[in-house]
Hints:
alpha/beta, binds 3'-phosphate-adenosine-5'-phosphate sulfate
Amino acid sequence: MxxxxxxxxxxxxxxxxSDELHAEVLEDLRIGEHGYKYRLVEGIVMPPFITPSxxxxxxxxxxxxxxxxxxxxxxxxxxxxxxxxxxxxxxGEAPSDRTLRDSVHWVESSIEYPRSKAELDAAPSPRIFHSxxxxxxxxxxxPLGNPCRYVYIARNPKDVAVSYFHFESRAPWAxxxxxxxxxxxxxxxxxxxxxxxxxxxxxxxWRHRDAPNVHFLRxxxxxxxxxxxxxxxxxxxxYDLSDDVVRAIEERTAFANMKQDSFSNxxxxxxxxxxxxxxxxxxxxxxxxxxxxxxxxxxYRERMRGSGLDFDFV
Length: 314
Ligand code: PPS
């Protein structure tokens, strides 16, 4: 554990969410069933910390050809991808003077190191942006009309729904939501969770997977076939990775290592003490009943029909 990272951690303020500090406009916060807190942004359910000014900045920021914006529906492996990208542009190494979250820019959010426009303009290239937005609300405006490279990660939605349930139950930015799992599942399938409908989110990016500045990957492929997926990602971003660098990134971003490494364990953020939960394919089976699974499968088949996209659930 590096001393520099330790001191970066201890000097971070605790970015605990509170309406007063992070919601910017309190009047438009809404409370749904079981206290679920959210705000609507362009008609889509969003966390209260996606504030009008942060969202406006994220949409209007001028992107550069070497910018990278990774994106995904919540709980799809975006922080894993963050660690991979930070190391990919740096020969497998992580910065010694800051943590993972502080190595990336989360523009749409008012929590966790929000940068001003001046700070973003001054940030050295390649800038790496964190985002969870649907395609039509992406960082930098229309992805097809700006030079940023977008990397989208998608994960099978049963695991996403379960991971998200653990993450948002009793979370301050979700109004201390206190519903039970069956209620959560109906919210997920109804598109009522923060970041909106999973199918719209994933298919919105999937439809543009062949655009020259969009790269689409699946969590399950990364888990099963890391080296090949990393090389594909490297080729998209213009990095030729040696075997040693591929091995180093695979090892340092493996779940167990990310969980204990002070660079990536997210322990500096108080609400994320249980962030590294399972990191596997198929933990949905511990939560779904047979009936829930059949109901889910029916909706999944209907919504995914004709898309050409499918997921590994086991
Ligand atoms: S967030 O809060 O929306 O940004 O979460 P996100 O990072 O997108 O996804 C969190 C889930 O990813 C798992 N995770 C990993 N899986 C495999 N390998 C690595 N290295 C890894 N790091 C994080 C994390 O544990 C969450 O999934 P669950 O199923 O809850 O374990």
